[in-house]
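thread: overnight batch results

M.L. [08:02]
morning all. the overnight job finished for the chain we discussed friday. pasting input first so we're all looking at the same thing
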Amino acid sequence: MSKAYVKEQISNGIATIEFFHPEHNSLPSDVLANLAQTITNAGNNDEVKVIILQSGGDRTFCAGASFQELISIEDDVTGKQFFSGFAHVINAMRKCPKFIIGRIQGKTVGGGVGLASATDYCMATKYASIKLSELNLGIGPFVVGPAVERKLGTSGMSQIAIDANSFYSPEWAQKKGLFAQVFESTEALDEAVQALAENLCKYNPEAMAEMKKMFWQGTEDWDQLLAERAAISGRLVLSEFTKETLKKYK
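M.L. [08:03]
and the structure it wrote out:
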């Protein structure tokens, strides 16, 4: 696999949405926009009863923001637009009336932790360590922060956000509430994800939609909140500190 993509497969009421990027499943603007729209469309599709969100490959779930695109940002407007891509995906997941199951097969960093946190039920392998690395770059997990804090709590979120050099184990993430279950292998993970999705398809869609509203109660201001957070990140990515740091990744 050498080209980025977002693809969807619908079978027996289950929509499997998969994203991929050759650079460890990093997320440039076009992939983010496609992902947000695909999630929205699946939520509006009466044939779909439950959604599985996964990434391609077997090593990294998501490396977060595209470094190449971060390096190319030269003004506040472009910066806000880029980070708004993550906001749009999280808000699409939040507003989607269908339960979204997260399949996390490997390490996930930065914005990827935000995607995992925005799923409704998340399962992982023992290789799925997490890290919020944004502070290392001179930015901060501003856009994904509300979703991460919602799952990990303020203490857990602040811990990994401040300790930006460290990967935290999937067992730690499970104890904090991000992962519901952790499996020994990708095969075991896939079996569990499929079994849960098939079981959910047997339930009343109206009941699940009402439950989703209940679970996300109190996040109604996230359209505005995440836009404001995107502006903060868009400004900080232009700072001298961040520009010098990003040069190391060219």
